[in-house]
Specification:
Distance between the termini: 36 Å
Helix content: 25-40%
Number of domains: 1
Oligomer: single chain
CATH class: Alpha Beta
Number of strands: 16
Strand content: 25-35%
Length: 322
């Protein structure tokens, strides 16, 4: 019997968001720059995905590690508000992960400076393994000692026949396919953006369909490559899917990938057609980027379905001969 639908594994951070009025290209080393606004939000692959899935209506728990500090209390308060249990109750002597996200009103992108602290010490014990009674594991990036834990989680998922979604970040993808092979072999769904996939495959290939063909050898049954506002492509059950995200006003792009991936996973868990799961992920992502913070703008299922109906996102499907 499943106690939860999804176990989300990864980092939990406090994001300090700074917005400036100048374009990045106008800055030089040594400049003292006035910012227009500062905001503080929680983030991290584990909490972003867990809150997104809980908002959509799933029973979710989380495996992350926090420090014994004020930032940890902010994160725990938010998890409690969303009825999400962190199965790791022990604290690290290291600080809770933090990120400083610098964006410009002149450019719709951002620079992210990340400090990895407590999340590098995530480990498994017999108590944690009891929490593997789930339908899916959402595995975000784990660094340092925690990557050994990621490999053990992948092994447990294979052994217990639990579906695994893997959503590594750029700095983990840069480690390469051989380094990530123990996790990739156990992965059901792999979701990366184009830059991350290029790094994982160690290629300069720019064409998304060609990247998708190269990625098929990695092992996952389903592969999705996003590319910001440009065409997204996916491989699923011998079919290639593509869609172009709808044009929406962009306020901040932080959390867009987690919102998309969580929406996609929700759709698949709820037996949506794959193309509709892609649409659900996309409207969730499009909603988030119209707000500051990785969780502001997350949709519940009713809101997502209404936006899917209104946005009429076209998905092109091509059968592939194997």
């Amino acid at each position: 019997m499943f106690k939860s639908d999804v176990l989300c594994v990864g980092s939990a951070t406090v994001d300090n968001m700074l917005t400036m009025g100048q374009p990045f290209s106008s800055l030089k080393l040594g400049d003292k720059v006035l910012v227009k606004s500062t905001k503080t939000h929680t983030g991290g692959g584990a909490t972003n995905s867990a809150c997104a899935l809980a908002k959509l209506g799933l029973k979710v728990k989380i495996l992350t590690k926090l420090g014994d500090d004020h930032n940890a209390e902010l994160i725990l308060k938010e998890l409690k508000q969303n009825h999400i249990l962190n199965v790791c109750s022990c604290r690290s002597k290291k600080n809770t992960d933090t990120a400083t996200i610098i964006s410009s009103t002149k450019e719709k992108d951002r620079l992210i400076l990340v400090h990895k602290g407590a999340s590098t010490e995530i480990s498994l014990c017999s108590h944690h393994k009891q929490n593997f009674r789930v339908k899916w594991i959402y595995l975000a990036s784990l660094m340092g000692h925690s990557f050994s834990t990621a490999k053990e989680i992948a092994r447990q998922a294979q052994h217990k026949k639990i579906n695994l979604l893997f959503n590594p970040s750029l700095y983990l993808a840069q480690k390469g396919r051989n380094y990530l092979a123990p996790v990739l072999r156990a992965t059901t769904i792999l979701v990366l953006n184009k830059e991350e996939m290029q790094s994982l495959l160690n290629t300069k290939e720019k064409e998304s369909f060609s990247l998708l063909q190269k990625a098929k050898s990695l092992g996952p049954k389903t592969i999705v490559i996003t590319d910001g506002p440009k065409k997204m492509v996916a491989w699923h059950e011998n079919k290639i899917y593509s869609l172009i995200p709808p044009d929406v006003p962009i306020v901040h792009t932080t959390g867009a990938g987690d919102a998309f991936t969580s929406g996609l996973l929700y759709g698949l868990i709820k037996n949506y057609k794959f193309e509709d799961a892609l649409r659900l992920g996309q409207v969730n992502s499009s909603s988030v980027i119209q707000h500051y913070g990785a969780k502001k703008g997350l949709l519940n299922e009713k809101q997502a379905l209404n936006l899917m109906k209104r946005s009429k996102i076209k998905v092109i499907i091509k059968n592939i001969d194997v």
